[in-house]
Amino acid sequence: MPNPVVNKASTEWNGELFTGSGTTTLETSGKATFDVAWQSRGEQEGGTTTPEELIAAAHATCYAMQFSNMLKENGTPPTQLNTSAAVTFVAGTGITGIELTVRGTVEGIDAATFDELARKAKETCPVSQALAGTEITLADVQLA
């Protein structure tokens, strides 16, 4: 049985929701600290990061890893995959959807098989599974 791997992040928040702000730190890697504030989350994009942007980063990364492994298992390892995730948040409602896109350079695969594996990767990616209560769509699949 593989050893469990635990990753950690933390947030320090100062003040109340609408006028407060904070920082989120990637503790396991120590690679980054991000400013966070409500304005970027619920009022207008940009300025600071948001939980949804961090979820999008995690989902795009996990999806790329899952899809690359499925392509390898198919005998058609990818040269390159470019993935993105767009997480929509509505104040008062929450996360209303996630849209994944992928563009890939893969030798020896036809578009139908690429599309089929892209869809299976969406369903089996561990982050997709963790977010199963949210509608996740695969909006754009392109084979270069």
Automatic annotation (TrEMBL):
InterPro entries: KH_dom-like_a/b (IPR015946), OsmC/Ohr_fam (IPR003718), OsmC/Ohrsf (IPR036102), OsmC_Ohr_Peroxiredoxin (IPR052707), Peroxiredoxin_OsmC (IPR019904). GO terms for molecular function: peroxidase activity. It holds the Pfam family OsmC. It comes from the Bacteria. GO terms for biological process: response to oxidative stress. Signal peptide: none annotated. This is Osmotically inducible protein OsmC. It comes from Georgenia satyanarayanai.
